[in-house]
Each structure stands twice: as C-alpha cells, then as structure tokens.
Design goal:
By secondary structure, this protein is an alpha/beta fold. The chain has helices at 23-39, 61-71, 89-102, 117-123, 130-143, 157-165, 178-195, 214-237, 246-259, 265-277, 296-312, and strands spanning 5-11, 44-47, 76-83, 107-112, 149-153, 170-172, 202-210, 239-240, 243-244, 261-263, 282-286. Helices cover 50% and strands 17% of the residues. β3 (76-83), α3 and β4 form a beta-alpha-beta unit. α2 (61-71) runs parallel beside α3 (89-102), α6 crosses α7 (178-195) and α8 runs antiparallel to α9. The longest helix is centred in the C-terminal third of the chain and has 24 residues, at 214-237.
Length: 316
C-alpha cells in the first residue's frame, strides 16, 4: 500500500470579474505560493486547465508547472487535469518528456477528457471523438520513455475502468463521498484484475478549509466557495443552447458545498481519515479559490501544522 502524500490546489490562474488580476501577477503569485507549500512540507502543487472563457484559466499547465519546478527543489507538480484529448498526443508527450528531462520524476500528469463542447469546437475537434483521442494519447504516453506519472482522472465508471486497465493511479474529483470513493476503488480493482494490472494508488481532490472552530470555518469559507462554484457552474457546467439552466446551477453548487470538508482541525482531520480508510493515499487539499487568495498563506500553514499530522496518525 502506497504512503500518504499531501498536495494543495487548485491554481487555475483566473482573472474573474470580481477578482481581476494581470496574468503576470497571477503567475508570479503561483510561484510564490508553490515555494511556500514546499517550505511547509507539502508533497505536491496542482494546476487546472481550461480555455475559451473570459477569465483566462491556464491553457498549458505542463508549461506553467515547469516554472514551478524551476523555482522549487523537490515539490512535485500535478495537473488536475491536463485535457489530453484537446491536445495533439505528440505535443503533450514532448512537453512531459521535456519537463522530466529538466526535473526528473516531479511531474504528476493527471489527465481527463473535459466536458465543454465549446472547447473542442474552438480547437476544431469533434466532441464525440474525445474518448478515442484520449485512449490513443494515454497509450502513447504509457508506451513512451517518459517518467511522468500518468493519472487517470474522472468519476464515471468507464473512465475509472479505462485507467485501471492501463495500471494507472486514479485521480478523483472533490464532490464524492467516502462511500462513493470506495465504490470507484472497487470498480477499478475489478477492471485491473480482469486486465492483469494493478492500480498503484488513489488520489482525491477535496475542497477543504480549517479554522479554530467549525462555525468560524463555515462562516468564512462556505460563502466564498459558493461564489466560486456559482461562477464556475454558470460558465462551464450549466450552459445550454437555450441559456443557463438555473436548476442545474443550484444543484451543482449545493453538491459542492455539501461535499466540502470545513471545520476545526479535529473535524477536518476526522473526515479526511474516512477517505483514507476508503483507499485514498494522495490528498489534494483544495483551499485556493480567488476569494481566499489574500489569506491563503495562513491556511496553508494551518493545514500543514495541525491537519496533515492528524490525518497521518494511525488510529485504532
């Protein structure tokens, strides 16, 4: 069984209407926070990817991640996720190989399909062919000499089985409960057994905020997380040709808030240990959204000092 590791995320490099910022400032801050994360003992630092929206996002997280690796000494850099099917496989492979030559063994290459037709349309790619493109690209990377660790991202059973059949670690999204994680771990185990492979480890992203008390944590973080997911849902999850599906927006925001782990150090650690019991070995603690940027340093310190040690503890 693999050892526990802890990363922080997600840095998406967004300049939103409520929190505008120059791209140069966003990337400079990203590097500053990565250095702090390394100093605090975190194992990894994770970036997202999207394109074709007004707030910018990070369209090339492998390239941005190389800047982080160059500014740190041991910190691993993760993508959650690199939208592999939106890239030419040869270019993603070259980027991963170049990263690995410069910073050996420090790239955690989480990959996923993406779900916005607009992104595929903008790139001139067929949305209904994304699964085929993903499979071919994953197989090309697996067959290569790249030492980047490729993670299979997603929550749909076919995506989980696809990763497990290839012997890849899993990278699961934040909205899952511990029981849902356990179910997907079981799906992966069955697919791996059938294919004669093993799943090396299971990773989980989780929205997390810690404060002195449960009430203080909820009062500070939940309204900010709600605003974050409200804009995200309107932009990415809930747009239809007829407009925004308001009912779907509310459902997605409510799901995100209910899945977040928010509270005192004891509360947060206990809930994270439940995911550890379900099989998670890599935790990506999602405490960074645009509205927490001004206090993120203190949050990283609190997570490193009082939460991570509690999660690592062996309990009877």
């Amino acid at each position: 069984m693999s050892e526990l590791s802890f990363g922080v995320g997600l840095w998406n490099l967004r300049s939103t209407a409520r929190f505008p910022s120059a791209s140069s400032d966003l990337y400079a801050s990203m590097i500053e926070k990565a250095r702090l994360a390394e100093q605090l003992g975190f194992d990894s630092f994770w970036l997202g990817e999207h394109r074709f929206w007004y707030d910018g996002w990070c369209p090339q997280p492998i390239v941005a991640g190389a800047a982080i690796a160059g500014a740190t000494e041991r910190l691993r850099v993760g993508t959650s996720v690199h939208l592999l099917a939106q890239h030419e496989a040869s270019r993603s492979l070259l980027a991963a190989q170049t990263f690995d030559r410069l910073f050996p063994g420090r790239l955690e290459l989480g990959v996923g399909l993406g779900y916005r037709p607009e992104e595929y349309d903008g790139l001139g790619l067929a949305f209904d062919q994304r699964g085929k493109r993903q499979r071919e690209a994953m197989d090309a990377i697996i067959a290569s000499s790249s030492r980047a660790r490729l993670w299979g991202g997603g929550m749909a059973p076919p995506a989980i089985a696809r990763a497990a059949r290839r012997g890849l670690p899993l990278l699961l999204p934040p909205g899952l409960s511990a029981d849902e994680v356990q179910n997907l771990v079981d799906v992966a185990g069955e697919a791996a057994t059938e294919a004669g492979t093993t799943v090396p480890t299971v990773g989980l992203l989780k929205d997390v905020w810690v404060a002195e008390t449960d009430e203080a944590a909820r009062e500070f973080f939940l309204p900010r997380l709600a605003d974050h997911y409200l804009e995200y849902a309107v932009a990415w999850w809930s747009r239809t040709p007829e407009g925004v599906n308001e009912a779907h927006v509310k459902k997605q925001v409510d799901r995100a808030l209910s899945a977040a782990i928010v509270g005192s150090p004891e509360t947060v650690a206990a809930k994270l240990r439940a995911f550890r019991a379900a099989g998670v070995r890599t935790f990506v603690l999602q405490c960074h959204v645009e509205a927490t940027d001004d206090v993120i340093d203190d949050q990283l310190r609190m997570l490193a000092d009082v939460v991570v040690p509690r999660v690592r503890e062996e309990r009877a």
